[in-house]
Amino acid sequence: MEKKLLGFIGIGNMGGALARAAAAGIEPGQIVLANRTQERAEALAQELGCLAASAEDTARCARFLFLGVKPHAMGDLMRQIVPILRARHDRFVLVSMAAGVPIARIRQLANGDYPVVRICPNTPVSIGRGLVTWCAEGARQEEMAELMDAMAGAGLWDECREELMDAASVVGGCVPAFTFLFLEALADGGVRCGLSREQALTYAAAAVEGAAALALRGEEHPGALKDAVCSPGGSTIVGVNELENRAFRAAAMNAVAAAWKRTAELGR
Ligand SMILES: NC(=O)c1ccc[n+]([C@@H]2O[C@H](COP(=O)([O-])OP(=O)(O)OC[C@H]3O[C@@H](n4cnc5c(N)ncnc54)[C@H](OP(=O)(O)O)[C@@H]3O)[C@@H](O)[C@H]2O)c1
Q1: CA 228 to chain centroid
Q2: Beta bridge partners of 6
Q3: pTM confidence score
Q4: DSSP label at 36?
Q5: Per residue in 184-195, pLDDT tens?
Q6: Is residue 81 within 6 Å of ligand 1 at its C-beta?
Q7: Which of 32, 36, 40, 76 should be mutated for ligand 1, with most atoms under 8 A from CB?
């Protein structure tokens, strides 16, 4: 197979979402997909107009090789492809998305000090509204520029020191799940008050999206933005009081801290 710009081995939730983001930004013929259950790679390749291949062929031809398996499966995958990587004479970059797994460990598993980019994406990358935090060792500046350009369809890319990647992976990667939980509960509340399920979910999601957009402007502290919604003696402050009674903020902080601890455990 001729050389391709991007190869993805493991196209589950995250690898698949990144492949979709890639296909939105570059010529799909430059993307090759591999997966343990190969029919899945073939189905996604057909949908995106790119190629499906074995993990070995993908490892042989991709300039940027995305490793999209679970952290505990990384050892087996690397054993499978190391002989192919060793036989390559051209330059290539490994891109690992394995939560909690340091670059040094990837290089150890790869049995070579290849350039490695460690990324932490979140699932909104599949619609171009994601966050990808990254750190790299051995990758040249122009390679990073090329990678981010090819993957611009994923959303915002932000460089992060490696020692902070676990924290970034929680606040960027786990928060969508926490938010979906919050959204579901808000929609339940709306239904409890008489809205249809569809109305309740749409209104809650639109409000969360708008609130996040305001916070992202960075002009005002979230506390000030909250204050602006709370009229004295009004309904919002009564709801805020109820959340505070249930230790909402402590629950959110503890969720982040617990997920951060678990990320470190899983990466070991
Ligand atoms: N999900 C997230 O929000 C998120 C966020 C940040 C980082 N990550 C990271 O992304 C990685 C993947 O997570 P995920 O949630 O996408 O997991 P997933 O949905 O289980 O996907 C893993 C994929 O890898 C495939 N696979 C396993 N071993 C393979 C092998 N030897 N060769 C080829 N394909 C193989 C699996 O194939 P089958 O179809 O046969 O099962 C599956 O499609 C993890 O390292 C995780 O830490 C995920």
Answers
A1: 32
A2: 31, 64
A3: 0.91
A4: S
A5: 999 999 999 999
A6: no
A7: 36
The predicted structure's pLDDT at residue 221: 97
The 10s digit of each residue's pLDDT in 155-207 is 999 999 999 999 999 999 999 999 999 999 999 999 999 999 999 999 999 99
Ligand 1 pocket test target in 8, 9, 13, 268 with most atoms within 8 Å of CB: 13
Give the ligand 1 atom nearest the CA of 15: 16
> Which of 50, 22, 21 has the alpha carbon at shortest distance from 34?
50
Domains in the chain, please, with CATH?
4-160 (3.40.50.720), 169-267 (1.10.3730.10)
15 lines ligand 1 (CB under 6 A): yes
pLDDT of 267 > 80? The answer is no
Answer whether 262 contacts ligand 1 (Cβ < 6 A): no
Residue (of 102, 104, 93) closest to 139 by Cα position: 93
For the Cβ of 121 lying below 6 angstroms from any atom of ligand 1, the answer is: yes
Ligand 1 atom at minimum distance from 69 CA = 24
User: b or e along 219-254 (b: 16 or more beta carbons within 10 Å of the residue's beta carbon)?
Assistant: eeeeeeeeeeeeeeeeeeeeeeeeeeeeeeeeeeee
For ligand 1, is residue 120 a contact (CB within 6 Å)? Answer: yes
Cα–Cα nearest to 126, from 47, 58, 191: 47
Closest CA to 95 of 200, 185, 188, 5: 5
